[in-house]
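Lab manual, section 2.4: Encoding a predicted structure.

Procedure: take the sequence of the chain (94 residues), apply the prediction step described in section 2.3, and record the output as structure tokens. A sample record is shown.
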Amino acid sequence: METALTRLRARSATSPSASSCCHEVHLTQLQTLYEVVLETTLDKRNFRKKILAMDLLVELDEVEQDVAHRAARLYRFDERKYRRLVKAGFDFQL
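Recorded output:
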């Protein structure tokens, strides 16, 4: 288990491996996932700005269900777009 976590941490710094493991996610969940994997706290506004600027998330026509607060927009990772960007020299950095 520790070896898998170590590898995930290393990959998460240079590729969106944490993003790709989620089918539908809102940005707060995605940020929490990266914070746990990378063992660091990320600034909310900067994280959202960077992750959305990469244009690797597809905004879905869905929001969270059954929540007591304002429902968050859901996204999914676009693997095909990521592969095309990598071929063109894209560098994933959080």
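Check your result against the sample. The radius of gyration is 14 Å.
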